[in-house]
Amino acid sequence: MAVLRRAPEPLQLPMRIISGEFRRRILLTPADAETTRPIPDRVKESLFGLLRGHCEGATVFDGFAGTGAIGLEAISRGAVHCVCVERDRHVGEILRKNVEALGVEDRCDVVVGDALGPGALARASRPLKLAFLDPPYPLVEDPIGFRRVMTQLGAIIDILTPDGYAVLRTPWPLRHRVAPQPATPDTREPKSFKKKPKDRRSWRKDVPELEPTAAARKARTPRVDKMRDEEVEWLDLDDQGRLIDSEGNVVPDDPFLADAARPHAEFTVPSLVLPNARGPETHEYRGMAVHLYMRK
């Protein structure tokens, strides 16, 4: 008799402090990893490698702090004070427990609120040496949300020390979807034609060819096919706008395929440049990137 077995749940690695005073200490996390989208250890280690020598004695602002993986790492590496801002009350309570477990209540303030609001910025230390913004991906993938993030980032850079850094984490590549323009109806008056007895089909040459509507293009090319070894492989788009094959593997960028796969949608690349900042210095890590800024 066949026995059905439940598929094993994906293994969730615990969040931990990588280096410093609290090295290898485990942090409490929500049961659902998607709630906070924790930064992978390899990315965190690389980031603090870039900031080597800047944590000792630093004041830190950690926006979208989650369970404190970044802010508490900075504390462990010698930061004297950190303000951690987290909007979700449940996650904020977990963050408080992590602060208490490490015994750093005098060095870390937990603020439950909007990291993009004026209240959060008012709590940041002055002068500020390090600032981290790790907003949810859907927020920066939305043009309005992205502008809010960049506005707050610019305000944070204004209070940085001359040798301070602000760090922004985003999905990569970062693209904004542009809604297709609605098809405009053809308002031209119909043209009258007179058939000639000798050539009854010559009148067809004068008929203007209209561009197909967006709906017609969509119906005509719903997906893209690419010839490989005389076989057809169907390509699609993932949630970041990248081309993927039938197995979910990302296909290398091909402008022709990208344009063909998006007949009724366009993407724009938002600017990460700020007028009051030097940078960004971008470091890519397979689907995500960290951007480093300094004050001009």
Task: Produce the secondary structure layout.
Layout: E1 15-16, E2 26-27, H1 41-50, E3 59-63, H2 71-76, E4 81-86, H3 89-102, E5 108-112, H4 118-123, E6 128-133, H5 137-141, H6 143-158, E7 160-171, E8 176-178, H7 214-220, E9 224-228, E10 231-237, E11 243-244, H8 255-261, E12 266-268, E13 277-284, E14 288-295
Parallel strand pairs: 3-4, 3-6, 4-5, 6-7
Antiparallel strand pairs: 1-2, 7-14, 8-12, 9-10, 10-11, 13-14
Q: What's the short story on this structure?
A:
With 296 residues, the protein is of the alpha/beta class.
Structural class: alpha/beta
| Helix count from the secondary structure assignment | 8
Overall average pLDDT = 79
- Quantity of strands, as a count: 14
Strand content: 25-35%
Query: Strands across the major sheet, in which order?
Result: 5-4-3-6-7-14-13
What are its keywords?
25% strand; single chain; seven-stranded mixed β-sheet; globular; disordered N terminus
